[in-house]
Amino acid sequence: MSTEAELATLLSRLDHAMVIVTTAADGERAGCLVGFHTQASIDPLRYLVLLSVANATYRVALQADHLAVHVLDERDRGLAELFGSETGDDVDKFAQVPWTAGPGGVPLLEVANRFVGRIVDRSDAGDHVVFLIEPVVAATSDSLTQLSALSMRDLEPGHEP
């Protein structure tokens, strides 16, 4: 087996938290389910979000100033299915869920654990673009049972990878 195939097998076995990323620019809202994200720095606090170039959220985020990261609990599976299996090219996801406007106009979903960050940099990473954000607002609950990538394996994506 090739190195690439071996690594793909290994990576497919790792589990990580699923989040919904939302953004807004020029009167357009967008959001999608994201598996590629991580804290990038402690001081200053920075976070990385990677968005697929095939995704409608990516196109809106290119013009946006802020991104919201909604950390999903297991009870948020319905939101994950909506934002992961529908594409903003065809469906207004925000018409189906309650939300409020946050910093920079980003849609904030009714998720207990979330934060909004100001976009400080963007860089090409292949079929994804890295958005480096500086958190400006955060909310958390007393508990969190993360919705994981492995628990969402049966989800049909809203667009081709």
Describe the protein in words.
Helix content is 16%, strand content 39%. It is α+β, with helices and mostly antiparallel strands. A 7-stranded antiparallel beta sheet has the order 2-1-5-8-9-4-3. It has a two-stranded antiparallel ribbon with strand order 6-7. The protein is globular and about 50 Å long. The two termini are 23 Å apart.
List keywords for this structure.
globular; 3 helices; two-stranded antiparallel sheet; alpha+beta; 161 residues; 9 strands; seven-stranded antiparallel beta sheet
Short description:
The protein has 161 residues and is of the alpha+beta class. It has helices spanning 3-13, 56-61, 77-85, and strands spanning 19-25, 28-34, 37-41, 46-52, 66-71, 99-101, 107-109, 113-124, 128-139.
Strand order of the largest sheet: 2-1-5-8-9-4-3
β-sheet strand percentage: 35-45%
Main beta-sheet strand count, sense and barrel state:
7 strands, antiparallel
Radius of gyration: 15 Å
Whole-number average pLDDT?
A: 88
Question: So how many helices?
Answer: 3
Low-pLDDT residue spans: none
Secondary structural class: alpha+beta
Relative helix content: 10-25%
| Number of extended strands | 9
- The quaternary organization reads as single chain
Morphology = globular
H/E order of the elements? HEEEEHEHEEEE
The N- and C-terminal alpha carbons lie at a distance of 23 Å
